[in-house]
From TrEMBL:
NCBIfam families: IV_pilin_GFxxxE. Keywords: Membrane, Methylation, Transmembrane, Transmembrane helix. The keyword Oxidoreductase does not apply. It is a single-pass membrane protein. It is found in: Membrane. InterPro entries: Bac_GSPG_pilin, N_methyl_site, Pilin-like. The chain crosses the membrane at residues 20-42. Signal peptide: none annotated. One of its GO terms (cellular component) is type II protein secretion system complex. It comes from candidate division WWE3 bacterium RBG_19FT_COMBO_53_11. Its main location: membrane. This is Type II secretion system protein GspG C-terminal domain-containing protein. The keyword Cell wall biogenesis/degradation does not apply.
Amino acid sequence: MNRKLLTTDYRLLTKRGFTLIELLVVISIIGLLSSVGLASFTRAQERARDAKRQSDLTSLRNSLEIYYSENNAYVDTLGSWQNIDTSLDVLVPTYTKVLPADPMKDQTYRYRSVTNQGYCLEAILEAATEPLQTTCTVSLESGYNFGVGNP
């Protein structure tokens, strides 16, 4: 009897690991939670980049309005869409310190003058719920879904 008790105690002392099923269950739960968290994180990043785009265009609009008040005309692009780094370089450094860049390196903000008395700035929003958000009086380019304009 004493020997049987020693064998049972020895088995209890030597069992120190987890079973394969226990490990698989824990790994499955961790994988599920991380995939849900990653999806939420990705969506939050998109919304943050969109907020920056909207803020950048608002800042450019303010700079253009100051430019207009001093020159009685907006920057002219002859009615064609142009990247802001080439068309609005006259705003630097007097009206804005630097021209903003889109958070995604493969996208650019675009600018178009409308008869020297109006303009439109456009950007591509990633998490746009509506197909088109614009205050521009001209049509946005294909693929662009957010615009800020005057008038």
